[in-house]
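Quick board copy: two proteins, each given as sequence then tokens.
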Amino acid sequence: MSMVSCLPKPSGMAILGDRQISYEDFELEWIGECDSKVERYCRSLLGSSKIGKIVIDIHESQMGLPNQGMDESYVLRLDEKIGIEAKTTWGGLRAIATLYQLASSGELSRQLEITDRPRFGWRGLLIDVARSFVSIGALRRILDGMAFLKLNVLHLHLSDDQGFRFRSEAFPGLASTESYSQAELEDLVSYAGDLGVRIIPELDVPGHVTSWLVNYPEWGFSDLSEASDRFGVHKACLDPSNEQLYEDLEILFSEVGAVFPEEFLHVGGDEVHPEYWSKSERVQKFAGETDLGGIAEIQNYFSNRVFEILLKINKKPLAWDEVLHEKMSDCVIQNWRGSSTRDRALVKGLDCIFSSGFYLDLFYPAEVHYLFDPESEQVELLELEDQLAVDLRFKHVAGGLKWTEQWRKGSINLHSEKLRGEKQLGRVLGGEACLWGELVSEGNLFPRLWSRLPAIAERLWSSESEKDVKSFYSRFLVVKACKEINWDRDEEMGLLRAGLNESQLDVAKLFEPAKWYFRLLGEEALNARLHGSEMPIARPYDVNASLDRVVDFLSPESFSARFLDEDLNTHALSILLERWLSLQPEGWPEDMQKGILGLVEVANRLRDYLWGDQLTKKEVRYLLEELYGPHGEYVIAVVPPILKWLDSHESR
């Protein structure tokens, strides 16, 4: 298939030749009834363009909201006219997104026939609005970008220790100052529905409930004066022995369910700290009376009670993989603790949402996410995880990556003959990218999202065999200019607000934020975590941190560095070295000065190698690897492509 600049890559496409047309004003023609959702979306994206006539045939207009299992297939033809055919509204919307991308990237001069459908029905994005509030306007902008990328599930993490964003009428004391009214959320659901996007709410229980217990201490174990301002695992949890709690949860979940008509409701279940349950005489007495053997069984009891509540109010439960238990009730599992938890869910016959390779808050480049496939065999996924620990780009967090191997405990070979013959396996419904809010504000949200989310969108839509990283980046470079995901503008505006001047932008973009949880934990807490004693160690960030430095606005992946190696030769490198050697660290923001010094040192070492005849290739490679970083919270992203060039350079 010849490359056409659209993303995700269509499942089927034929390029039939050149298209001889005159570009006339936009015009719509319908075969059969006009579909209001498709027409509105088409006019909003293409109404002011010189695209000519578009003939649309939607077999069944969908008046309701999108749903799991909806048909999103379509056929798009570029001939004398533009033709769109789809069985449903949802396919029509996806066709419009493709056509808009083709028009924006100058592809209308080709005669094309695209026959397309998604690989997975669940293609999602989690936004953590609990730790960092996101306005309704920004959420609408996210939805616009999701529709552009053909994503169809927005998962809102509405509650956590730091905040509760849903204004409950039954329990008004729950809501934080910054929160959403039910009317605002209903409007958002409607807006999303018009774009073919479902919104799934999450209220996280029984842990992560500090904000809950401030005004409703009877649900837990201790009086709390305010929601937490720190990040990390908290001891606060709900009381599983309290019958009144379950009655109140039914009222609360019913309220949430009425606002969000989606069939699924997410109930969290992650990172439950055991201390209060272990020390509570009431809980321990309750556990003894109900034959619950320990903390895991107590949590499973709580989970099953909550699942019963959801079924009673006609909702399907969805939870994080910590709820996995041999005695658990039916639930869709969202896996995040490494790849092995996916198979632990599937072997129990539970459907699964794959997220373990899709955490956008880890500051990984797009290619890392792109290679994690929700249906790859476990051994392949674990190999990808292992490769990160030996990749120079993650050397500074290799110990942390090794720490996560504990999540492989209890892993199962899903593809063994025995399991295939004896078990009714669950299904992988799809996947979700997750952007947790600790280091995110509305000001830097979009460079965080759009610089990597397109890779995950393609992984979830396109064929499993589509793993050509170079092809993805080539198409992404074209498509990212569209206003829906043009994050470069947001990045540059943020860098200028952070104190840089225009002349410094190009150099700043040769840096990236440090990877994994290096920034969030800080070096001291990171080392403590590796030794199992993180809790007493203060983290460098909390909810009051001002995310207004250069590191907060830099894209997690430096495209300047990534594509440097395509044009890199000794002459081009010489020009760069001359500029880097002239840099004066004192002219940069204080937190960047270590990084600028590091870049100057990179230039010095390369100069010594190229012209000073003082270093061998092996010696300069070692020095450059050491200079990669971190320098404070920055890494010098230009080092890996320089090392690639060095490997091809004539040795001495």
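And the next:
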Amino acid sequence: MKKISKSFLVLLMIFMLILGSNPGQVVVAQEGTETTTPTGTETPTPTNTPTNTPTNTPITPTYPPAPTAIAPSFSRPLVVINAYSYGDDAVTPGSDFTLKLRVKNNGGSEAYNLVATFESTEFLPLESGGVRSVSSLGSGSATDISQPLRSSSTLWGTVSGVVVVNMTYTDSQGTAYTEKFTITINLRQPNYSAAAATATPTTRPRAQLVVGGYEVDVDPLQPGSIFNLKVKVRNLGSVDAQSVTMVLGGGVSSTDGSGTPTSGLSGGSPELTTFAPIGSSNLIYLDKVMAGEPKDAEAQLIVNVSAIPGAYPFKISFVYSDANGNRVVDDQVITLLVYSLPKVEIGFYLDPGILIAGQMSTLPIQITNLGKTTAILGNLRVTSDGADITNNVALVGPLEQGGYFTLDAMAMPYMEGPLDISLVVSYTDDFNQPRVVEQILSVQVEPMPVFEEIPGEGIDIPVVEQPETLTQKIIRFFKGLFGLGSGKPSSPENGLPEIEGELPQEEIPVKPMPSGKG
């Protein structure tokens, strides 16, 4: 084989490096060696004639795209407030507005029985009493909830107010969830002019009638109760309210159906299903209510006998005239609680008679249900400050209409005279508050009788030792000589000394013989 010159080999190596040749296919031998392929095939000796050397094009590796991270979703319902609005950028203190909520379920399952409760001491709820409900809200779905509110006039000078929204709901399994949201309401600030300029009011002065407080003279209210409702009316406006009329049950509009103000007053469409007026109509004329001064209004009402226990919103409207003679209506809502307490009678089912001081006697006590429904009662407890009473506590339980429960307590009075016995029955009312029914029963206690002791009737009579006579001494002497015993004779079993001879008839005590003894 021909030897390859060094310069040619150098050029060949540079050329192969430039073209990116694959060293696995061509192997360049040093001077004096042979060039071979990895497979052992003999390679011809290169010549100076240029040859076309194939080039290997590098292949860029490709990789599969990285998986996109997917955010985990909630399997439970998750109700949130996406947005809310109240009409304007700010609310004027003392005015009415509507708070609108956009509620959305961001969870992975449907929400059921959604209840939203609006709470605030600065904004008074209107129409619904501050409670809204939605039957169901699907996953990813949204709905709108609106609640009319009235801002308090005491908010003048403040920047904002707060309304707390509590939401409760359940999932398909009945698991309950609770969310709490705080909503900030921006308030409109009064405009104050410079000292040298004249202040110009931004709104027209008007009266504002609200219920500052109310009370009833019957506690608690039950179906069929007749009570007096006393309402304290306050004028929070800047001018006096003229020709004021309070309408029980509401249902008054300041305009007719076309929006034109009317001059008459209609009280024929209020809500008086549960509470109805007695002795007068539902229109109460108050005449004038001065600005900043309270005024009391009173009406007599009755609770419908068909009312069931619960909290009832009761609407009250105030109708009055403004400075221009236009009729203005201010609506208020108060809440009245109706209970259905058990009607039971507690007493003796038998006459206990006269008790004896220091002796145990029976107290036959009975509880009777006089109501029209089943009464569920707790423990009956019998106590007294003037006697020791045992067997005095028992669980009553449910009593059907006309049913009764008896307890025979045992009492031992301490002393004679009248004795007061306290009976207390515990139970839980319709608003889960503990209550008791108390009853005081009086009995007469006589002193313990004193018995005089009669001799001979089982009472021991002390033995009186009689002096020994001379004859008895002589007889004992001779008995001792003959070994018959010389001791004094013992007393007989009846405890009386032996008597020798005969005594007068009147001096011998006669003891009656008990029957059945020999």
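Board note added afterward: Helices lie at 6-19, 470-481.
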